[in-house]
Description:
By secondary structure, this protein is α+β, with helices and mostly antiparallel strands. 31% of the residues lie in helices and 28% in strands. It has 6 helices and 10 strands; from the N terminus they run E-H-H-E-E-E-H-E-H-E-E-E-H-H-E-E. Mean pLDDT is 89; it is low at 1-7.
Amino acid sequence: MADPASDENTRIEIRPLESIAQIHEAADVLREVWAGDRDSMPPNLMRALAHSGNYVVGMYDGGRMVGASIAFFAPPSARSMHSHITGVLPGLQSKGLGRVLKQHQREWALARGVGHITWTFDPLVARNAHFNLRVLGARITEYLVDHYGPMDDGVNRGDETDRLMVSWALAAPPAPTPADERVVASVAVPHEIETMRRESPTDAAAWRARVREGFLARLAEGLVAAGFDDERGYLFVRP
């Protein structure tokens, strides 16, 4: 599947991972994306999910795998699927490939009667918030404190794993960013948390605490996280 808006993506194909060799190649890709993590998606689990009919795909540029995505079905009555992990190799990020993967995932899910896809992301990563909320139009449903516990990869090591859960309604129009007159509060995030984690981990930890405290306080007031602004951060409205 190619993104028609990008000539660079015309060679991209997304294929189900059907052989054990493909599974191990995808595991290697995800380890590179997460800087050495060997625990988040072991090949034997990926193989089991693929064999039982879940979404397990690789993204190829020619003959080279450059990304992978794994999702599994929620309870049947929910008509939902949870996207556990999606990654594109460093150096190929911010080129629209993540959107290509998400649109493929959407089409795959709709063909199987699935109406929603959920996933989590780190609330401190502004580019992911922009993509998930402004580009895809997903909705925030939960703030999860230290959701995964300690993780020993190059992205998350030494940090608490707070996450936002989002839900993407596949057949509905994207959730719009709320109009300024509706916004009653906001929670700012840093523009480049990845750089801060490397260069000033103490400042990064302070941001984690600040965003957690602000987000949970706004939710406790009965407000709803309804969107994201690149300058103001998360935007809250009255329900």
